[in-house]
Amino acid sequence: MPDPWSYRENIYRNLPYANRLSTNASDRMNKKPYRNILSTTHKALAAEIRQARSSIPHAGETGALIENLIRAKLQEVLPEKVAVGNGFVVDAEGGVSKQMDIILYDRLNTPRIFYSDDAQMFPVEATYACGEIKTNLNTETLRDTFEKCSSYKALVRKAYINRNSPIEQTFLLYGDECKHWQSIFFCIAVESIRRETLLKTFVEIVKKRELKYNDRVDTVCSLDGKFLLNATKPSIDNDLQGRSIDLLPDKELNHISSYQTKEPWALFVFLLMRYMVQAPQVIVNMLSYDNGKPF
Predict the structure, then answer these.
(1) Euclidean distance between CA atoms 193 and 181, whole angstroms
(2) What's the pLDDT tens digit per position in 160-187?
């Protein structure tokens, strides 16, 4: 079965094909220390999750511990400027998201609207992405994930302070050149139903809700190896050779495809990192959050 990791273009679009890597697995891993570390991290995370499940009988407590474990692993690999939290996201028009298991936000410039050990509240302009963590991803929990996604992506990003810079920074997100960052949403699951069923349910939800490609869940990663990601051509046969893949869809790369991998954590981190390394430091105009009422 072809291995999309044999081609660097499959991870970083618009780059030329790299030379084929060695067919010897150990040689490949030794030549890719970063990927090797991520694969080791995945094994350690899986072991910690198994221990949590076997040691803690209460499902709610187990779920909370698993969420903490995944957030901690994300924080280990993300750039220092990106912090990992959980809680709620709000906008200057009074919109509030559903509770988010993962919130990636600007570590240095995010105003502390509300902060506690259990949950926090963030202005949407200071966030880069949100994510849902599912212990078991099935048709019902996937629908719930879409609800969480919609509540985040519906928030309006407008409370910015103009820096009056002669150079205007833009971001290529969802295939468009954007003046401001856009809301990214992903799902990480411990285990999930069959890939074919997961893909079918995903497509049905998108069609039923008539969601645009940038309004839906962007990527689904299950730590048991199942993946839903964006490709230039649809794929259900686990063959991504010759296709570009990405964390985010766009007008051309908008086919959600299923894939089975032995290194789900490494694949997810590589896809996510492409965007997090370019995440901006944002100055939020908090006066826009005062609802226009006199103090």
Answers:
(1) 33
(2) 988 777 777 889 999 999 999 999 999 9
